[in-house]
């Protein structure tokens, strides 16, 4: 028989073995802690980047005075009823100057205007440069940020004189930039938000949405450089026919249009919103 001392030593050894964590489990636990730490750091970085972008664009709203309501133009036209057409037109242009474009250009010369869809989060400066990739990850202040900016296709004229002008923006997870465009999948949303407003140096311009749909990144929907001819007319019929639903808006070869484009489905597709110029 073992002595009492041997028995006590054996019992102590068993207790030590019982309290010791197996190495494989310890390794897994350490890995889990590291992964959790990295995930928290990544989420914090994304959150701070989102906040920085949102804060910057929120501050720029001070350069916009009032909503781009159509009744402003109607009132201006009424004021010119007894005047000739030129005077009425001048009155309208004077009434709708509501964005301090020159002040924004003084801060960033790439600024060409402002885009807004009333009742949504879309209200941003419009940028235009010789490199379409630059404003994918640079804000208005030219700071590196995943939110980027809303910008006009580099091959388009900066003054929106082309028959077809394309405007790009990210589909941000926090709902900023062009994320709200996907809401146009619903016809009722279009009824509530039918117009896009673009402010340029010469005042406010309104565009009425006539087609919304999803397309490939290399879709012919991105064709530009049109003349007011049969080719352009056929193009308009094509993109109107692609709409998810009938918008009941007619568009002809005499109409200038804009296309708002954003990524969807992890960048595999694009969501497009086409609108024709009203004034």
Please give a structural write-up.
Helix content is 36%, strand content 20%. It has 7 helices and 8 strands; from the N terminus they run αααααββββαββαββ. α3 runs antiparallel to α4. The chain is globular, with a radius of gyration of 29 Å.
Short description:
The chain is an alpha+beta fold. The chain is built from 7 helices and 8 strands, in the order H-H-H-H-H-E-E-E-E-H-E-E-H-E-E. Residues 71-93 have low confidence and may be disordered.
Write the layout of secondary structure elements.
Layout: H1 4-19, H2 23-60, H3 70-79, H4 85-95, H5 101-107, E1 111-116, E2 123-127, E3 150-152, E4 164-168, H6 187-192, E5 195-200, E6 203-216, H7 230-241, E7 257-264, E8 269-277
Parallel strand pairs: 2-3, 4-7
Antiparallel strand pairs: 1-2, 1-5, 3-4, 5-6, 6-8, 7-8
Helix pairs in contact: 3-4
EC number: 3.4.22.71
GO molecular function, one term: hydrolase activity
Transmembrane segments: 21-41
Estimate the helix proportion, in percent.
25-40%
Question: Which class do the helix and strand fractions yield?
Answer: alpha+beta
- The count of β-strands is 8
Strand ordering within the main sheet: 1-2-3-4-7-8-6-5
- Computed over alpha carbons, the radius of gyration is 29 Å
Described by the principal axes of the CA atoms, the overall outline is globular
Q: Averaging pLDDT over every residue, what do you get? A: 84
Portion of residues in beta strands equals: 15-25%
Topology order in helix (H) and strand (E) letters: HHHHHEEEEHEEHEE
Which stretches of 5+ consecutive residues score pLDDT under 50? 71-93
Q: Describe the sheet with the most strands.
A: 8 strands, mixed, barrel
The end-to-end span amounts to: 106 Å
> With helices defined by DSSP (H or I, 4 residues minimum), what is the helix count?
7
